[in-house]
Design a protein that fits this description.
The protein is of the alpha/beta class. The protein is 48% helix and 13% strand. It starts with 7 loop residues before the first helix and ends with a helix. The model has no long low-confidence stretch (mean pLDDT 94). The structure holds BIS(adenosine)-5'-pentaphosphate and magnesium ion.
C-alpha cells in the first residue's frame, strides 16, 4: 500500500526478484487492458486517465483470474484500494486456500508526491520505472532500449486528484488492516535501497 508515487512499483519489482514472487500491479493490469485496444480497455482509460478508481466488481473479477493462474507467492501492488476490495480479497484468499501474510504501507509525505510523479518515466517494453532529471534526454530505456513514456494520469493536476481519491477511498483500508497483526509501516522518503532493506527486514519472518 501507499499513496501515488510512494514507491510501490519500484519496491515490488525488487521484491519479485529477491523472493521469486509474482508481482501483480493492478494499475499495470489495467494499463495492459487499455493497450490491448479492447472495448473494456477504452472504458477503463476513461476512468483511470482522470485519476478515478475503476469499479470494485470489475477490479476483483479481473484479479481473481490472475491469482488463480499462479502457485507462486504474490505481491499485490495497488490492491486492495477500497475497504470493499479488502473484504473481497479476504474472501477470495479463503476460497483459494491462500493467506495474506503481511500488509506493507510505504509512507511518503505528500509534499514529495507531485515532483516524484511528474519526473517518472516508464518503459513500454519491460516496465522499468525511471526517475528523470529535468533537461536530461530520456526516451530510451537503459535496461532494454524500449520506448519510455509518461502516464496520462501523471500530470500535476491529475496527481492532486489521485491524492484526494487516495484519502477518501484508500486510507480507510489502513484501518481495516491495522489491528490484524500483519500491518507494518515503512518510511518512504529514504533511498530506494534503504526502503527495500526495511521491507525485507519486516518480511524475513514470513519468507
Ligand atoms: P497505479 O498504477 O497503482 O498508480 P498509483 O497508486 O497512483 O501509484 P503509482 O504507480 O503512481 O506510484 P508507485 O507507488 O508505484 O511509485 P513508483 O514506484 O512508480 O494506479 C493507477 C490507476 O489505476 C489508479 O488511479 C486507478 O484509476 C486505477 N487502479 C489501480 N489499481 C486499482 C484498484 N485496485 N482499484 C481501482 N482502480 C485501480 O515511484 C514513483 C516515482 O518515484 C518514480 O519515478 C520512481 O523512480 C521514484 N521513486 C521511487 N522510490 C523512490 C525513492 N525511495 N526515492 C526517490 N524516488 C523514488
Ligand atoms: Mg505503480
Amino acid at each position: 500500500m501507499g499513496c501515488p508515487g510512494a514507491g510501490k512499483g519500484t519496491q515490488s519489482a525488487k521484491l519479485q526478484d529477491k523472493f521469486h514472487l509474482k508481482h501483480i500491479s493492478t494499475g499495470d493490469v489495467l494499463r495492459a487492458e487499455i493497450a490491448s485496444g479492447s472495448a473494456l480497455g477504452q472504458e477503463i482509460a476513461g476512468i483511470i486517465n482522470k485519476g478515478n478508481l475503476v469499479p470494485d466488481e470489475l477490479m476483483i473479477s479481473i484479479l481473481e483470474n490472475i491469482v488463480k493462474s499462479t502457485d507462486k507467492g504474490i505481491i499485490f501492488d495497488g490492491f486492495p484500494r477500497t475497504v470493499a476490495q479488502a473484504e473481497a480479497l479476504d474472501a477470495m484468499m479463503k476460497r483459494l486456500g491462500r493467506e495474506i501474510t503481511e500488509v506493507v504501507m510505504i509512507d511518503l509525505p505528500e509534499s514529495e508526491v507531485v515532483s516524484r510523479i511528474t519526473s517518472r518515466r516508464q518503459c513500454r517494453k519491460c516496465g522499468e520505472i525511471l526517475h528523470v532529471t529535468p533537461g536530461t534526454p530520456a526516451n530510451k530505456c537503459p535496461v532494454c532500449g524500449g520506448e519510455l513514456y509518461t502516464r496520462p494520469d501523471d500530470t500535476a493536476e491529475r496527481v492532486k486528484h489521485r491524492l484526494e481519491v487516495y484519502h477518501t477511498e484508500t486510507l480507510p483500508v489502513k484501518s481495516y488492516y491495522q489491528n490484524s497483526g500483519k500491518y507494518v509501516e515503512i518510511k518512504g522518503n529514504q533511498t530506494p535501497e534503504k526502503v527495500f532493506e526495511d521491507i525485507v527486514s519486516v518480511l524475513k519472518k514470513v519468507k
